[in-house]
């Protein structure tokens, strides 16, 4: 009880409340600007932690973290550009909703799902963080590989209109991701003696080029043909009836994001893809995915914002960052005199409770901040089409260049934009390419490490109960359409005989 009262007194401090509100709003703005992202936002705020107190520093960083992950959905919905890599799956259904005149509802669903996922994950974190940390430790390379293989099955589900082209796009994404150093041996692959390729293709330049620049080219082609879509939006929260109807999707996606967040090194980008794959498998509206289905938007946003809380589990309980962003936050905590690890819950219990409470407050601020700021972002769509597209190009170029200060990233954006436009023109879906690109590093590294652990034998992968269960679920998922057709054929044959 004394620890809770101390945490509440830290929470009530004016500097802490001001820091979390300011951090959340700044995070939303930075997250909405294509190419910047959560990591850059938190890194920019690190110097402020030297002049702020412990409580205000933690509040500022948590607010920026939550706000920036959500902010990426704004540009994903409005201009078909994921502001952060965590919002890559949001584009798949968010932008189609906007194009058919439901941008306001799409923003409402993204805001609601983000806040719900973050709050639920925070509650789970407060209750079960030690247990979740122990479960996360059970995941090794073999289990990560099985999880990645399961996530890849969503390439099949989002490519039902043209499975061959979808699989080809997914393979292209997998191939592009392996350019650079081998994660095990360090040898260079497919660098074509270009020094800049030795570090691989960056996720942000690839994504913003594939979606944002290809969209600019696509809009230009439509203008030539005399058909320019006009997106009108007015922020609208979903009704209570709509929330009740889709509550199970909100809950499941939030739980997936929380669980993925507790696994060190996976991150919100993979979590949103895995959640999207599961939603595509189980949603009653699965056939509408990719055309503007709210369930797809909910799956992505609830999961990636639940990761923000889930990733704090290994960070606090084990001192192991859940993703690169929490790695920076881990350093900030150490600078504040906090030593994350198993004894943190015993030696500094009031700070742990303060972090839980501040995550809760940050997600509430994120909801109201999104509600207030989404209409401001949507007003950019009132600009004339050429000005809007020019602004997108400038933002993409400035945001991408600011990450590494490397002109080669701009070339990647240009080539990805041209490639994305050509693929769209020829009827290839972009979603499988993104899925393959995002999941490829995790799958390759865990596969190589798993083979080393099992002396080159793949049979050793089935010795893990967790991996075997994931492989079984993947097989059932892939074979289910065939089994359903066989069952219907047998049933119809039996009916005819009768």
UniProtKB/TrEMBL annotation:
<keyword id="KW-0812">Transmembrane</keyword>
<feature type="transmembrane region" description="Helical">
    <location>
        <begin position="28"/>
        <end position="51"/>
    </location>
</feature>
<feature type="transmembrane region" description="Helical">
    <location>
        <begin position="410"/>
        <end position="438"/>
    </location>
</feature>
<keyword id="KW-0472">Membrane</keyword>
<feature type="transmembrane region" description="Helical">
    <location>
        <begin position="351"/>
        <end position="374"/>
    </location>
</feature>
<protein>
    <recommendedName>
        <fullName>DUF112 domain-containing protein</fullName>
    </recommendedName>
</protein>
<feature type="transmembrane region" description="Helical">
    <location>
        <begin position="166"/>
        <end position="185"/>
    </location>
</feature>
<feature type="transmembrane region" description="Helical">
    <location>
        <begin position="256"/>
        <end position="277"/>
    </location>
</feature>
<dbReference type="InterPro" id="IPR002823">
    <property type="entry name" value="DUF112_TM"/>
</dbReference>
<feature type="transmembrane region" description="Helical">
    <location>
        <begin position="458"/>
        <end position="483"/>
    </location>
</feature>
<keyword id="KW-1133">Transmembrane helix</keyword>
<dbReference type="Pfam" id="PF01970">
    <property type="entry name" value="TctA"/>
</dbReference>
<feature type="domain" description="DUF112">
    <location>
        <begin position="17"/>
        <end position="435"/>
    </location>
</feature>
<feature type="transmembrane region" description="Helical">
    <location>
        <begin position="106"/>
        <end position="132"/>
    </location>
</feature>
<feature type="transmembrane region" description="Helical">
    <location>
        <begin position="386"/>
        <end position="403"/>
    </location>
</feature>
<feature type="transmembrane region" description="Helical">
    <location>
        <begin position="58"/>
        <end position="79"/>
    </location>
</feature>
<feature type="transmembrane region" description="Helical">
    <location>
        <begin position="144"/>
        <end position="160"/>
    </location>
</feature>
<feature type="transmembrane region" description="Helical">
    <location>
        <begin position="197"/>
        <end position="218"/>
    </location>
</feature>
């Amino acid at each position: 009880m004394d620890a809770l009262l101390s945490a509440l007194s830290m929470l009530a401090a004016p500097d802490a409340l001001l820091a979390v509100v300011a951090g959340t709003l700044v995070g939303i703005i930075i997250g909405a600007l294509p190419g910047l992202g959560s990591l850059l936002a938190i890194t920019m705020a690190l110097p402020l932690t030297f002049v702020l107190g412990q409580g205000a520093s933690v509040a500022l960083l948590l607010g920026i973290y939550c706000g920036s992950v959500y902010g990426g959905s704004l540009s994903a919905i409005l201009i078909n550009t994921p502001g952060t890599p965590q919002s890559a799956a949001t584009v798949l259904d968010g932008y189609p909703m906007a194009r058919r005149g439901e941008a306001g509802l799409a923003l409402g669903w993204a805001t609601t799902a983000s806040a719900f996922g973050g709050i639920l994950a925070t509650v789970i974190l407060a209750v079960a963080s030690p247990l979740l940390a122990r479960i996360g430790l059970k995941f090794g390379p073999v289990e990560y590989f099985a999880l990645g293989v399961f996530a890849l099955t969503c390439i099949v589900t989002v490519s039902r209109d043209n499975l061959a082209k979808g699989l080809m796009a997914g393979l292209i994404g997998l191939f592009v991701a392996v350019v650079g150093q081998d994660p095990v041996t360090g040898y260079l692959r497919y660098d074509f003696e270009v020094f800049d390729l030795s570090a691989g293709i960056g996720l942000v330049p690839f994504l913003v080029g594939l979606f944002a620049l290809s969209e600019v080219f696509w809009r230009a082609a439509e203008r030539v043909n005399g058909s320019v879509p006009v997106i009108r939006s007015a922020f609208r929260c979903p009704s209570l009836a709509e929330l009740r109807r889709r509550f199970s999707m909100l809950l499941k996606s939030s739980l997936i994001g929380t669980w993925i967040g507790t696994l060190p090194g996976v991150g919100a980008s993979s979590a949103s893809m895995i959640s999207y794959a599961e939603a595509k498998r189980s949603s009653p509206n699965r056939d509408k995915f990719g055309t503007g289905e709210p369930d797809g938007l909910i799956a992505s946003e609830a999961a990636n914002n639940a990761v923000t809380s889930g990733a704090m589990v290994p960070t606090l309980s084990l001192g192991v960052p859940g993703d690169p962003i929490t790695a920076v936050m881990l350093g900030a905590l150490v600078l504040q005199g906090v030593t994350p690890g198993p004894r943190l819950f015993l030696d500094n219990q009031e700070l742990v409770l303060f972090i839980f409470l501040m995550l809760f407050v940050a997600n509430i601020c994120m909801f109201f901040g999104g509600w207030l700021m989404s209409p401001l972002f949507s007003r950019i769509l009132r600009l004339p089409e050429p000005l809007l597209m020019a602004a997108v190009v400038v933002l993409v170029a400035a945001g991408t260049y600011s990450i590494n200060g490397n002109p080669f990233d701009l070339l990647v954006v240009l080539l990805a934009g041209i490639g994305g436009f050509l693929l769209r023109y020829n009827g290839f879906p972009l979603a499988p390419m993104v899925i393959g690109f995002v999941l490829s590093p995790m799958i390759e590294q865990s596969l190589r490490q798993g083979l080393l652990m099992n002396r080159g034998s793949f049979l050793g992968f089935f010795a893990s109960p967790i991996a075997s269960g994931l492989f079984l679920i993947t097989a059932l998922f892939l074979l289910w359409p065939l089994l359903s057709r066989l069952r219907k054929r047998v049933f119809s044959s039996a009916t005819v005989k009768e």
